[in-house]
Design brief:
By secondary structure, this protein is α/β, with parallel strands linked by helices. The chain has four helices and 13 strands. It has one domain: Purple Acid Phosphatase, chain A, domain 2, CATH 3.60.21. The strands form three sheets. Strands 4-5-8-9-11-10 form a six-stranded mixed β-sheet. The protein has a five-stranded mixed β-sheet with strand order 3-2-1-12-13, with no helix packed on it. Strands 6-7 form a two-stranded parallel sheet. The model has no long low-confidence stretch (mean pLDDT 98).
Length: 212
C-alpha cells in the first residue's frame, strides 16, 4: 500500500496537483494559517479533488471547531482507531501549549491521560498521526537546539511500541528519526513547495519511507 503524508499546508493548495497518486493521503494538520472552519473546508475540498481516501487531524493554527468539517467528510482521524488497508490508525490534532497562544493548543498532561485511556494496551496501533512531534525525537528540534515537542506523545509512542508516528508543526525539524524503535517522520511543511513523505507498507513488514 502506498501512503502519502503531508502536513503544515497553511493554505498553499497550489502544490496539491504535484502529489503522486496513492492509496491513502494522510494530513497532519495546519490546513490553514489561523483559518476558520470554512478555510479548512476549502483546503480539504482541494485535497479531495486529488485523493479519494483522506484521513486527517487539525493543527494548532486551525480552528478547533473545524473538526466537524473533517468528520462530515469521513476524513477525521481521532483517538478511536480506524483501519485502512490492514493498518490501524489514530490521530491527535492540535499541539502542546506554546508561548504564542494559538487557536488549538492543549495541556500535555491531559492529553497524556487521554492517550492512555484510549489505548491502554501496547501494540494497539500501527500509525499515530500527531500534529505535535514527540519530545526529544529530533522532529521537534528548533534551530537553537531546544526540543519543544509533546512529552505525552513521546510517552505514548514508547508505551504502545508504536511502529510509525507522523508529525509536523516544527517546520525546521524535517527528517526521519528513531524514537526507541518508533519511526518518527516530519516531512517539513507542505507550504514549502509541496514537501511530503511517501510510505510503502505491506501488512506484516516494516514500511519503506522517503521524503520528497
Amino acid at each position: 500500500m502506498r501512503i502519502i503524508y503531508i502536513t503544515d499546508i497553511h493554505g498553499h493548495t497550489e502544490f496539491i496537483s504535484q502529489l503522486p497518486q496513492a492509496d491513502l493521503l494522510l494530513v497532519g494538520g495546519d490546513f490553514t494559517q489561523f483559518g476558520d472552519r470554512d478555510a479548512v473546508a476549502e483546503v480539504l475540498a482541494a485535497l479531495q479533488r486529488q485523493s479519494k481516501h483522506i484521513l486527517a487531524v487539525l493543527g494548532n493554527l486551525d480552528a478547533p471547531d473545524a473538526q466537524d468539517v473533517l468528520a462530515q467528510n469521513n476524513a477525521a482521524l481521532t483517538l478511536t482507531a480506524t483501519t485502512f488497508g490492514g493498518l490501524r490508525l489514530a490521530g491527535q490534532g492540535g499541539a502542546n501549549t506554546s508561548p504564542f497562544n494559538t487557536p488549538f493548543e492543549w495541556d500535555d498532561n491531559t492529553v497524556g491521560q487521554t492517550l492512555s485511556q484510549a489505548f491502554p494496551s501496547p501494540d494497539a496501533l500501527d500509525i499515530l498521526v500527531s500534529h505535535a512531534p514527540p519530545y526529544d525525537s529530533g522532529a521537534d528540534r528548533l534551530p537553537n537546539g531546544a526540543s519543544v515537542g509533546s512529552r505525552a506523545v513521546a510517552q505514548a509512542a514508547r508505551r504502545l511500541r508504536l511502529p510509525l508516528l507522523l508529525c509536523g508543526h516544527i517546520h525546521e525539524a524535517d527528517g526521519i528519526f528513531d524514537l526507541d524503535g518508533t519511526i518518527v517522520v516530519n516531512p517539513g511543511p507542505f507550504s514549502d513547495n509541496g514537501r511530503h513523505a511517501c510510505i510503502d507498507w505491506q501488512t506484516g513488514q516494516r514500511p519503506t519511507i522517503w521524503l520528497a
